[in-house]
Amino acid sequence: MKKILALATIAFLSGTSSLGLAQTDASKPTQADAQDSAKYHSKYKARGNVHSTVLALPFSVIYTGVTQAFAKLELTINYEEQTLGYIEGGRSRGVSGEIIQVWIDPEAKDQYRVEVRNIRLSRMGLLGFAGTKDWSKELLAAINNELAGRPTVAQLQSAVEGNPADIDARRKLIEAQVAGGQLDAAVDTYRALLARFPASHLDRVNLADLLISRGQPDQAIEVLKQAQGADPEVTLQLARIYIIAERGAEAMDLLTPLAQKNTADLKARYQMARAAYLTGDVPTSKANFASVIEQAPQHPFAEQSKLWLRLLETGPIRKPLETKTALSLCEMLIKEKLDLLAQRYLESIVGSASEPERGQATRLLVTIYQSQRQYAAIARLLEPQVEQFKKDRQGELIYFLALSQCGLRNFKPALEYLKAAKKAGYKTPKELENVLKGYQ
Amino acid sequence: MARGCLIITQLVLLASLTATVELAAQESSADIQIENSSNKESLTGSVRLVETKQESEKVFQHDIVSRGVFAVILTLTNQSKDSSYSLQRSNITVRTEFDAQIASLEPQRAYDRLMWKIGSGPAFAEAGIVRAIAEGSRKKKLQKSVLAAAIGANVTLSPGDEIEGALFFVPPKDTKTLRFSTLVVGEIINQKSGERFPLRFPLATQQ
Question: Is the domain of A43 the same as that of A164?
């Protein structure tokens, strides 16, 4: 998902995307022009190398970037085959220091506008020095030309219907659907693709990944079970998803023959040890973790195996999980990218645990929700405790609450929580505060 | 173990869609064999991980590692007599030992990453001439060594062809090495038969 998200945003100006983009007349004065704060009126503007444009994006990806404190927002400005600058991780980056600021229009309902407010083209310093040529109009024209003529999801859909044997057309449609947040539609398109191209390993694995990211491990299992051929890597993936789905016995059924067939297969052995722990089979788990350490002492699996063995000293896993055990277990599960399983365990303990374990569990759970964009879940979890967080100066948790409100498009409380987080000692990103102020 | 030495992994691949894949990583080299009873064509490949300053300077004449970029040099040889194979760079990822997927960085983006730290901010921008000289020199060097070394977005291997190209990756914050990871070419297409199959290259030994 992350990959697709980044691709969509990067691609939208770099010409590799197939997303449909509308646009406004960039030559007209923009909201940004009217609202420019003092810092935007730099000497660079006087030199003529600051300009604005408004681009309308019919997908939510940019908006999501804001909710995540710009962590996912990427934007590239290309001109004459050169990358002039881009934003990455919300910070202004660029070839030798371009500054680009982005404005997200909160009023747009189905369309989220990105406004390139301010671009300082430092290449001007390189090519004849600043201000000698007004590149901004040319650049705007280039951007707008680039955006024109992109196929919409509907056009991509028609392309698929017109040529159902074209697997690439289907993949482009899926890419656009995922980027547009139309995940149900993307799953349907994947299923239709696999019905026609059942041997497409790439799409099968990608669909399983998409289903996992949506918290649907059982469906992912069904998809992978239909994979053709006997690929041990697919078997390992399937076993991993069985573990996520708390179907440890089925994971063991897959992993045991794999590990027995190839005793050097460290991954199969490690996964088997982990599955055995989660099914309560302590002897098998211990034996396999020990074997991993002996077989590959320098491997990260060995390091993790030592932690698992330490956990095993407390005895077999018992449900409901005891708080301390659950926290140790979840930290390992998160490190091993088994977030969905960790989420389930954390949800089971977060209400009953007492401080400080509750704070730790809450933090872990919020991190998982955040990565899955479950903003309503974050709000449900944190809002009832916000006064306590203020008293305890737990600014980070209040900050997460602010982000979740951004995700829910509740910008007024988002700004209030952001300020509260700052007051509680958390260093909040200035960019986000500036954007949210504009949203009020 | 010292962080990221140059590691060469040799792989022999007999290509097929309905392949049975046997993975066997040993010491500093590993063999992957994709068996296919009906297909006698073969694709041979090797990968080389670049994740130290020394190796980076050797391969790219520039330290890309200290800028947070790792590289994998992928070599593929089509030993078939009558089949062509194709692949897309966008389908190549690194899968870590804990199954995190890292997409490869567009070469232009890798280049940007290497360029952007030359200077930043308005104060630096004032030093236009100095910057122009520094940037211009580095730009040429990086264009030659990094951009030119990158594997193409679409690669087709005709019978007898060999290609070698770099793929760039930015490892996640908590990942110090990719030695225990696997390079996954998500899909290779046999142009003659239309078969589609993945290839996987362990970046090092399991040990």
Answer: no
Measured in angstroms, the CA of A203 and the nearest CA of chain B are apart by 9
Whether A341 is in a domain gets the answer no
pLDDT digit string, tens, across residues A77-93? 444 344 444 443 333 33
Q: What percent of chain A has pLDDT over 70?
A: 63
Q: Residue A366: CB partners within 8 Å, gap ≥ 6? A: A378, A381, A382, A397, A400
Could you identify the residue written with the tokens 């041997």?
A: A199
Residue A320 neighbours by CB under 8 Å, 6+ apart: A348, A349
Domains of chain B in sequence order = 7-111+150-202 (2.60.40.10)
Helix (H, G, I), strand (E, B) or coil at B73: strand
Complex ipTM > 0.85? no
**Which stretches of chain B drop beneath a pLDDT of 70?**
1-41, 112-113, 115-140, 143-144, 205-207
**Residue of chain A with shortest Cα separation from B178:** A300
Tell me how many domains chain A contains.
3
Contact between residue B16 and residue B35 where contact means Cβ atoms under 8 Å apart = yes
Measured CA distances, A53 to A22, A30, A62, A140 (Å): 13, 7, 16, 7
* CB proximity under 8 Å: A 112-131 to B: 120, 122, 125-126, 129-130
Which A residues 141-200 touch B at CB under 8 Å?
197, 199-200
In chain A, residues 35-94 whose CB comes closer than 8 Å to chain B: 42, 44, 76, 83, 86, 93-94
What are the pLDDT digits (tens) for A291-326? 999 999 999 999 999 999 998 988 778 777 788 888
Residue A179, domain member (yes or no):
yes
* Closest residue to B24, CB basis, from A42, A264, A336: A264
